[in-house]
Amino acid sequence: MNADPSLAARLPLELPALDWITDAARVARLSQDFAWFSPVLKRQLADKTAEVAVRPRTEAEIRAVVAACARDAIPITVRGSGTGNYGQAIPLHGGVILDMSGYNAFGWVRSGAGRAQAGIRLADFDRQARPQGWELRWLPSTFRSATLGGLFGGGFGGAGSITYGPMAAAGNVLGVRVMTVEPEPRAIELRAPDAMLLHHVYGTNGIVLELEVALAPALDWIESIAIFTSFDAALAFASALGSAPGLVKKEVCFLGAPVPDHMTALAEYLPKGCHAVLVVMAESSQAGMEDMTTAAGGRISYRKTAAESGNRTLLEYTWNHTTLVAMKVDRGLTYIQSGFEPARHVEQVKALERLLAGEVLMHLEFLRTKDGAFNCSGLQLIRFTSEERLNEIMQIYRDHGVTINNPHVFILEDGRQGQLNPAVVELKRRFDSQGLLNPGKMRSWTAPHAD
Amino acid sequence: MNADPSLAARLPLELPALDWITDAARVARLSQDFAWFSPVLKRQLADKTAEVAVRPRTEAEIRAVVAACARDAIPITVRGSGTGNYGQAIPLHGGVILDMSGYNAFGWVRSGAGRAQAGIRLADFDRQARPQGWELRWLPSTFRSATLGGLFGGGFGGAGSITYGPMAAAGNVLGVRVMTVEPEPRAIELRAPDAMLLHHVYGTNGIVLELEVALAPALDWIESIAIFTSFDAALAFASALGSAPGLVKKEVCFLGAPVPDHMTALAEYLPKGCHAVLVVMAESSQAGMEDMTTAAGGRISYRKTAAESGNRTLLEYTWNHTTLVAMKVDRGLTYIQSGFEPARHVEQVKALERLLAGEVLMHLEFLRTKDGAFNCSGLQLIRFTSEERLNEIMQIYRDHGVTINNPHVFILEDGRQGQLNPAVVELKRRFDSQGLLNPGKMRSWTAPHAD
Questions:
Q1: Cis bond leading into A439, ω under 30°?
Q2: How far is CA B246 from CA A39, A125, A135, A279, B243, in A?
Q3: CB-nearest partner of B246 from A133, A170, A247
Q4: Closest Cα to residue B208, out of B224, B189, B223, B192?
Q5: Cα(A407)–Cα(A398) distance, rounded to whole angstroms?
Q6: Do A165 and B246 touch (CB under 8 A)?
Q7: pLDDT top residue among B1 and B294
Q8: What DSSP character marks residue A69?
Q9: CA end-to-end span of chain A, whole Å?
Q10: Which of residues 161-180 of A touch B (CB under 8 A)?
Q11: What are phi and psi of A105, to 5 degrees?
Q12: What residues contact residue B307 under an 8 Å CB cut-off, 6+ apart?
């Protein structure tokens, strides 16, 4: 369904007041994300690129681009900062990259809710919200560069999901302003739960312009590392701490040995061979966490308030930054994403560690599921040998009752092991009737006239 | 072990500067609590009374009373506002009531922690903490009169336990200042977890002078009633709402028909025969809760902000205020307290409702357990016929895998169906070596020379 390349190339001439990127190398870079974490995706997606990119600053500019694309049937791939790991923002069929990072105004914060334009960086949002007593409920490890719209369109949650669950949990997102793709684009406010039909579908069924989200009270956080010599003791500690209702926390990340050995910048706090739990606690919960550490046979090797941390935050060693940091040291690593059963996550982790230690390096993020069950999610590092062995490992996980969210596929339905919500597809039909948004990522529906 | 009554009677003469209550009728009233909820306890405890009561205003006054009692072996029963339901504050062996309600200074609030003297009323604490951005994590339905020390000494938690678990959960209580009972009383600061050895032991192992507790960020709350025609739909709604991690709440109380019919002051919002769920939501979570209500087939019949509520709060229709309100309408009712299994609480409730509807009226409080599991606790109303039938009902519950915290006993060990933590008993030996504190409530240890 590639449109005539000359059509996209003409857009900058037609809309000269906009901020266009036409240099092929820059466009190619803006077309990529962190899909190279996966050797599979890297092979499939490395050469994919848009023809031009544009960085609109106003809704009127967005509307002008979208109208022109709709008129000429030019594919549009909406992009935040390109911090995705599954090629969410990689255009498969050329066209235009709609880079939202310049559409980034902070709107307002009141009574536990806040609103901003989609391109606002998460760190910027917090910097403006915190003086008013509020902060975002979730911070992926990419929060410095990642945008709010990007998190909504292609992300999950992150730090904070231990309390508030994933972004998808009811109550987290209150509303979105969406633009349709048609010659005369409409901007529509959708409130939750309908707003959630645009969540995590890679910008395939509407262009999210603004988001209104529920916020968390801004607290003073302390970052710590608890280290252990026993895998089982560290795991039991992380699980008990994560679940403890009286200990207010933002992050509990378990790193089985030898994952911590890859974190060279933190080496002085991570004795070789240790198992580490990276935690971010509310100040009033710090003592309780430290009591639990001692009782579990561990010790605190690192403890810093925000003021003491300077520009460093342990959050940039969690979630997929763990993967990034480890891969910088060892390019032979890749990873998988796995979901345990809430009722027996500790037991499942132990069984898989016994079976695959050395080849699969255990990294767990503790969280509440969408329904509020306490659980952990794995972002295990894998010493990559072959795609065949990678698939075998994933099968061993499944055989232990662990679900795999395969991060080595870029089509929505493949990542979810099943059907999309029909209402998601219906919205695609209504808001993008020509199938121009991020084409090739949704298999369930293609425009009647697309080839 | 009753001391010579003349000894207690002499105390007011010996310490004339203190605020003594010696009038027998007033002392008898100060000796009682809400144990009359239980027909069993009412019969056993109705005639129990101290000989004198004293209301100290300073630590020096407390010390003077305690020193005198220790010298003369006079029993001391520490009391907050007497809102307990199990005779916690009812002296079994005469002596002195140490009424802490005048020892009530607010200390400080900072960084999510707060400190106050034990006799502060919970509502007073919140009134002073909220302008600084914080509030208590738990409010029993008696919060207007109940004291912080009383909640700690004889209570559980309450509204807020849906988020922070019971007061007993790690991280909720940070420290206590305790006075020993000896001729020269010592005041000792105990930090958590040791501080918790004095929790919910009815003031038997030390006199709690001050408490330091972790706080919750003060939010704007909205109180609502969701009503349903289907018991199962109301139950499923309450359970899903209670667990939902993105919906911030303070209270989810389920009242199966015909419990709501007893709430005459709310009759306009409670159609006869309805099942009702009383909820208190953070303002930004209200819309999400209302969406869930509609999706579950219910409707919102009552919705008020704090400003709109005036002096009324739905919290005074939850927890044991449900029992109180219902018993005012029907004195033939009593109640039990039950704990379900987190993994199958909905199924257990349905089975017991099918079996005992009409005789046992379902009242559930949703909460997180000490370990963070989502669950509900029952405060079922019972149409009382006999102690034998009451025991039968409790056995039916146990046969369904539901634990009973028997509210018809006043001895610590009987309410817990087992042993006390040995460290609790050891503290009793150290801090109250003569066994003068609330004698008769702890069976595990009595002073060597007590009779």
A1: no
A2: 35, 19, 14, 21, 9
A3: A170
A4: B189
A5: 15
A6: yes
A7: B294
A8: H
A9: 5
A10: 163-165, 169-172, 174
A11: -75, 135
A12: none
Phi, psi of B189 (to 5 degrees): -90, 120
CA distance B209 to B148: 10
What is the least distance, in Å, from the CA of A385 to any CA of chain B? 39
Window 16-35 of A: residues touching B by CB (8 A cutoff) are none
* B chain contacts of residue A343, beta-carbon cutoff 8 Å: 343
Q: Are strands A113-117 and A106-110 parallel, antiparallel or unpaired?
A: antiparallel
A84/A91 Cα distance (integer angstroms): 13
pTM of the model: 0.95
Work out the burial of residue B444: count CB atoms within 10 Å of its CB; fewer than 13 is exposed, 13-18 middle, 19 or more buried. middle
Higher pLDDT among residues B44 and A124, named by residue: A124
Smallest CA–CA separation between A173 and chain B, in Å?
9
pLDDT tens digits, one per residue of A139-193: 999 999 999 999 999 999 999 999 999 999 999 999 999 999 999 999 999 999 9
Kindly list the distances between the CA atom of residue B121 and the CA atoms of A360, B152, B205, in Å, as whole numbers in the listed order: 55, 12, 22
- Asked whether residue B395 carries a pLDDT value surpassing 80, the answer given is yes
Contact A112 B283 (CB under 8 A): yes
- pLDDT for the residue numbered B450: 54
Structural contact between residues B288 and A112, judged by C-beta atoms closer than 8 angstroms = no
Radius of gyration of chain A (CA): 22
The total number of residues written for chain A in this structure: 451
The amino acid that residue A16 corresponds to is P
Beta pairing class for B96-99 and B76-79 = parallel
Average pLDDT over chain B, rounded to whole? Answer: 94
What does the alpha-carbon distance between residue A31 and residue A24 come to, in Å, rounded to a whole number? 10
Q: What is the pLDDT of residues A296-318, one digit of tens each?
A: 999 999 999 988 998 899 999 99
Geometric angle at alpha carbon A396, from A395 and A401, rounded to 5°: 90
| Buried residues in A154-183 as b, exposed as e (16+ CB within 10 A) | bbbbbbbbbbbbbbbbbbbbbbbbbbbbbe
In 3D, which of A284, A281, A302 has the Cα closest to residue A238? A281
A170–B283 CB contact, under 8 Å: no
Under a CB-based contact definition with an 8 Å cutoff, are residues B38 and B47 in contact?
A: no
Q: Are B325 and B34 in contact (CB under 8 A)?
A: no
Q: Is A267 in CB contact (< 8 Å) with chain B? A: no
| DSSP tally for chain A: helices H, then strands E | 15, 21
C-alpha to C-alpha distance for A157 and A164, rounded to whole angstroms: 9
Tell me which residue of B68, B102, B295 sits closest to B184, measured CA to CA.
B68
Closest among B88, B50, B165, B29 to B407, alpha carbons compared: B88
For chain A, say whether B131 makes contact (Cβ under 8 Å): no
Is the pLDDT at A258 greater than 50? The verdict is yes
Q: 3-state DSSP call for residue B389?
A: helix
Return d(Cα A239, Cα A248) in angstroms, integer. 14
Take residue B439 and report the two structure tokens written for it: 């004698």
What's the CA gap between A171 and A164, in Å, rounded?
9
Contact A273, A225 (CB under 8 A): no
What secondary structure letter does DSSP report for A270? S
Residues A338/A378, Cβ–Cβ less than 8 Å: yes
Instruction: Give just the sign of the alpha carbon dihedral A395, A401, A402, A404.
Output: positive
Whether B137 and chain A come into contact, CB under 8 Å, resolves to: yes
Alpha helices (H) in A221-332, listed in sequence order: 231-243, 286-295, 306-309, 319-329
Assign B417 a pLDDT band (cuts: 50, 70, 90).
low
Q: Which of A111, A220, A240 sits opposite B284 (nearest CB)?
A: A111
Average pLDDT value for residue range A72-86? 93
